Amino acid sequence: MGEALAYRAAYLVGPQRGSKQVIHLDTSFLIRALVAGSPEDRRLRRWLSNRAPLGMSCVSWAEFLCGPVEPDHVELATRLVGESVPFVAADAATSAQLFNVSGQRRGSFTDCMIAATAIRATAALATGNPADFRRFSSAGLKLVA
């Protein structure tokens, strides 16, 4: 009876789809993706056509909103990434660890916060500045290749 029920559930709901890797956009990537024809624009369009799940940390979102940014770009970005992923206490602890083990580089704490959020969400990070984030790979950050 269990097999019959599982068959009916699969028939009614459809086959289980493999979960796709969530891609978090960082600020630099999003800004560049809004430029028509840019490499980031082409990559983003490819992800959208493949229905890749996209997200963005609230830290990156805040950076993006600092602008300058046009209201129509904010609206478009909101449709692309939906609700931004919150920064929580666990992210604060991970950010501090990343900052301390990477040499406490001036101006890099925001990158640590963005990386920590992506690590917790098990998301790959799309960035226009991969050199700024490679140092976090040993902590589990995956960069989109």
Describe this structure as you would to a colleague:
- The protein has eight helices and four strands, in the order αβααβααααβαβ.
- By secondary structure, it is of the alpha/beta class.
- The protein has a single domain, classed as Rossmann fold, CATH 3.40.50.1010.
- It has a four-stranded parallel beta sheet.
- Strand 3, helix 8 and strand 4 form a beta-alpha-beta unit.
- The radius of gyration is 18 Å and the shape is globular.
- It starts with a helix and ends with a strand.
Total separate domains: 1
Q: Percent range for helical residues? A: 40-55%
Taken in chain order, the helices and strands follow as HEHHEHHHHEHE
CATH class: Alpha Beta
Mean pLDDT: 87
Q: Specify Rg, calculated over alpha carbons.
A: 18 Å
Largest sheet: 4 strands, parallel
What is the count of helical runs? Answer: 8
Named CATH topology: Rossmann fold
Amino- and carboxy-terminal Cα gap: 46 Å
How big a fraction of the residues is strand? 5-15%
Strands of the biggest beta sheet: in what spatial order? Answer: 2-1-3-4
The CATH superfamily label reads 5'-nuclease
- Class computed from helices, strands and strand pairing: alpha/beta
